[in-house]
UniProtKB/TrEMBL annotation:
GO terms for molecular function: RNA binding. Oligomer of 11 identical subunits arranged in doughnut-like structure. Keywords: RNA-binding, Transcription, Transcription regulation. One of its GO terms (biological process) is regulation of DNA-templated transcription. Coiled coil: none annotated. Belongs to the MtrB family. Residues 15-81 form the Tryptophan RNA-binding attenuator protein domain. This is Transcription attenuation protein MtrB. The gene is mtrB. Pfam families: TrpBP (PF02081). InterPro entries: MtrB, Trp_RNA-bd_attenuator-like_dom, Trp_RNA-bd_attenuator_dom.
Length: 82
C-alpha cells in the first residue's frame, strides 16, 4: 500500500478551493477563523471582473462575501443576487 505524505501546501482539513468573481466594484471577501471564537482574519476587496481563488485552511473555516459576485465551489455555483 502506497503511503501518501501531506504536501506542505495542503491542510489536514482537505483544503477545498473556492473562487469568487466580482460582478461589481467593491466586492468584499472576508475570511473567518476556525476555533471556539470565530473572528475576521483576512479581507480582500475585488473590483468588477476580478477573480479571487482561495482555499479553506486550518485557520479559515468560513468566508463571507459582500456585494454582487458569483462564488464557485465543488458544491455548486452561488450568485449573491439570487
Amino acid at each position: 500500500m502506497e503511503q501518501r505524505h501531506q504536501d506542505e501546501n495542503e491542510t489536514s482539513n482537505g483544503g477545498d478551493y473556492f473562487v469568487v468573481k466580482a460582478k461589481d466594484q467593491g466586492v468584499t471577501v472576508i475570511g473567518l477563523t476556525r476555533g471556539k471564537d470565530t473572528r475576521f482574519h483576512h479581507t480582500e476587496k475585488l473590483d468588477k471582473g476580478e477573480v479571487l481563488i482561495a482555499q479553506f485552511t486550518d485557520h479559515t473555516s468560513a468566508v463571507k462575501v459582500r456585494g454582487k459576485a458569483v462564488v464557485y465551489t465543488k458544491h455548486g455555483i452561488i450568485d449573491t443576487e439570487e
